[in-house]
Amino acid sequence: ALRKNSSILTLVLEHNLIKDRGVNSLAECLKVNSTLSSLLLKGNHISDSAIENLRHPLSTNRSIEQICLNGTHISDQGAWILLNVIGVNRKITRVGISGNLIGTIMKETIR
Fold first, then answer.
1. Distance of alpha carbon 74 from alpha carbon 97, whole angstroms
2. Nearest Cα to 76, choosing from 42, 40, 43, 110?
3. Based on C-alpha coordinates, what's the Rg of the chain?
4. In whole angstroms, what is the distance from residue 49 CA to residue 45 CA?
5. Is-contact 85 64, C-beta < 8 A?
6. Residue 86, SS3?
7. Type and span of the H or E element at 40
8. What average pLDDT does this structure show over 10-35?
């Protein structure tokens, strides 16, 4: 439904027990959806592998401006992937990653 839906601008899936499989499905939808501007996934259990699957869709999707991944259990690896994504896609201006397993050095790199 999200693939062809042009009226949803914000997708709030916070604290919905979404895991990698759900994120991988979202990644497929983001490849073709051109209207979603905010993706809020706070409080779900998402691995760095799922963030890797989001890399390409988030790098090429020009409608996404905000991503919230607070408290999703990503580590330095996932943060590094996101850092690369926002380096490629300048439309993304807000990325929430607090409350994750990100080390001090990576936090300093991100700032």
1. 8
2. 110
3. 13
4. 12
5. no
6. helix
7. strand 38-40
8. 95
Q: What are the C-alpha distances in Å from 57 to residues 12, 15, 61, 64, 96?
A: 18, 22, 6, 10, 18
- 3-state SS class at 12: strand
**Position 25, amino acid:** S
CA distance 22 to 78: 17
- pLDDT, tens digit, for every residue of 63-99? 999 999 999 999 999 999 999 999 999 999 999 999 9
* d(C-alpha 37, C-alpha 65), whole Å: 5
Q: What are phi and psi of 67, to 5 degrees?
A: -135, 130
Q: Report the pLDDT averaged over residues 49-58.
A: 97
